[in-house]
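Predict the structure of Diaminopimelate epimerase.
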Amino acid sequence: MLQTFYKYQGTGNDFVMIDNRQQKFDKNNTKHIAFLCDRRFGIGADGLILLENHDDLDFKMVYYNADGNESSMCGNGGRCIVAFAKHLGVIKNNAVFEAIDGLHQATIDENMVKLQMLDVSTIEKHENHVFLNTGSPHHVQFEDAIDDFDIRAKGSKIRFGEPYNKAGSNVNFVKRVSDSTFRVRTYERGVEDETLSCGTGVTAVAIAMHYLGETKNNIVNLNVEGGQLQVSFEVENNEYKNVLLIGHATFVFKGEI
Ligand SMILES: N[C@@H](CCC[C@H](N)C(=O)O)C(=O)O
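Done. Here is the predicted structure for Diaminopimelate epimerase.
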């Protein structure tokens, strides 16, 4: 039987979206999910997202990386599923949904989505990097030659190396552009390559830059390969609260496979 799918992207981080409110999708078929995400043999995407019913909230989000494995929170995917839920008529302009890291509130205006992310209170400062979890684990480090280096090779070495090993971490390389703007390139675990944008990644970068004193602003602009995102937050007793990831979420095409 053919499967209807929708393709969405948020700053170039692209996803296969499936309406699984009838629970027909085989969630245990890792190879099939990887095939759907394959850019040569399948539809092509950085990840696959299921929209499911929830007893008390608007919907539930289930996220898989392009390798076919279910993973931790996807910020850009979270913005895209809000646009998808609106398209399906599940929500109007506001949403409260459950993802693997807990509840998320969101608003959508045209294709601009503001998504509330996890509060962050634990930030590890190391000699050459910062590590924090914004729903997914993120290694953040400065890279002056950000426009011209082998991110796949360097990112993969860090992702699979100590202390992350097999469980891994996403890896963000950052260059300061101004007081309020940073350039970011991300190597994503589970895609095992650079993606054009990573929502939990830029959230981690914005918080890390504030934590390190690289910005005093609580609205930070992030220039990524696929466009621009904004992250805002409040800081209370060293805890980053009311963290919002802001950017577009765009329908690309619909099909059957
Ligand atoms: N693209 C995502 C992050 C998805 C999860 C990540 N690959 C992982 O496994 O940790 C985002 O926009 O946050």
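Helices lie at 30-37, 75-88, 151-160, 199-211.
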